[in-house]
Amino acid sequence: MRFARFTAAALVPAIIAVLISGPAWAHNSLTKAVPDKNSTVQQRPEQVELTFLQKVDPKQLAIGVTDAQKQKVPLAAPTAKGKVATAAFSEPLTNGVYTVTYQVVSLDGHEVKGSYKFTLNDPSATIPPSAQPISSTEAIVPSSSSSPDEGIGLWPIVAGIAALLVLGAAAFFAMRRSKIS
After folding, report:
1. Predicted structure pTM score
2. Thinking of the domain 28-150, which architecture would CATH place it in?
């Protein structure tokens, strides 16, 4: 009987701890991008559109774009509506490789940063005189994200649920055993 009470007493704080700490695992992450990550687009995009896992706070949003020479591309102030953040290009883009960077804040207050590349290869666009030709391998190099949190996924939640199930089963069998004795 003593073991059953001990297990039940341990189970309640464990459940509370998992329920309270749940939002800490819910870091925001990029789910969709237009232009798409590592893509080659044939038409000049008018804006960058980023869709995230969670609602985006417009006050804590930053979007930037740089060209192949790491020069900033002029953008309008970024806006956010729900999970979608956009930033319109102030001037038409020329052919080349561009890097999109973003920064958002998760619901739990954790800052998430990331970046990706895309290539513009519009037959009607002009190539700037200082631009280097783009090799086909440059356009398909995977980008790296500066946020290690984007790949966390659901494993912490699954592990927490599994731990609760084990503790619950132990409590059940301990209580059952004490009633039989």
Report:
1. 0.59
2. Sandwich (2.60)
